[in-house]
Amino acid sequence: MAGHSKWKNIQGRKNAQDSKRAKVFQKLAKEIFVAAKAGADISTNAALRLVVDKAKAVNMPNDNIKRAIDKAAGNTAGEHYDEITYEGYGPGGIAVLVHTLTDNRNRTSTNVRVAFNKNGGSLGETGSVAYMFDRKGYIVIERADLEVDEDTLMLEAIEAGADDVETSEEAFEVYTEASAFTDVKDALSEAGYAFVTAELSMIPQVSNDIPEDKKEQFERMIDALEDDDDVQEVYTNAIGY
């Protein structure tokens, strides 16, 4: 992995994201809608199952989840979202991937470009930074009140198909190949583990420090991107972020 705890990197932003819970639910509803277009049954639609699990992990109400699925099943108006990933560099040369779902490409492209340009970043061509990231399964199990030692959990995870387990005082972080994620998640769930996070993510191969004089500018850029209704996920290779 990148050699740095992804969990520690995202903990600092968790409270800020929690304060935007309504917007998070709105974005997840869009993601559920897109996944459910391929079938409303989570037992046969793996993509839908993953996003529903993701929604439940942030306590999205079941009614909201059902509404998004029903909307997709009954969608006769041709509502459609394009999935577009933008690549670029933030202040200090930090690599940034921006995953979007949009019904208006021009609007989204303009908003993303403005967020980069106004905050010392620059958009790049397709493939300009994606090669620095790997698509991985990522599972976090908090250690508080967990009566299991590091060796036991690591053995269970590896036997289930995980690639790596990173440990800290706060949590176990399990990394898998994207193709093995569901099997590993199911095996650990059946073993009785509860997850703080369980998702497919873009994990940087190498993480870099944000220069001290660029941190405020970098944070403004990320905030602008995350506040955009069309932006689903923002991935960076910044340490501590």
UniProtKB/TrEMBL annotation:
InterPro entries the UniProt entry points to: Integrase-like_N, TACO1_YebC-like_2nd/3rd_dom, TACO1_YebC_N, Transcrip_reg_TACO1-like, Transcrip_reg_TACO1-like_dom3, YebC-like
Protein location: Cytoplasm
Native source organism of the sequence: Listeria booriae
Alphabetized UniProt keyword annotations: Cytoplasm, DNA-binding, Transcription, Transcription regulation
Region (Disordered) location: 1-20
Any GO molecular function: DNA binding
Name the UniProt record assigns to this protein: Probable transcriptional regulatory protein HCB69_02535
Domain TACO1/YebC-like N-terminal: 5-75
Highest taxon of the lineage: Bacteria
Taxonomic lineage: Bacteria, Bacillati, Bacillota, Bacilli, Bacillales
Domain TACO1/YebC-like second and third: 81-238
Entry's family note: Belongs to the TACO1 family.
GO biological process: regulation of DNA-templated transcription
GO cellular component: cytosol
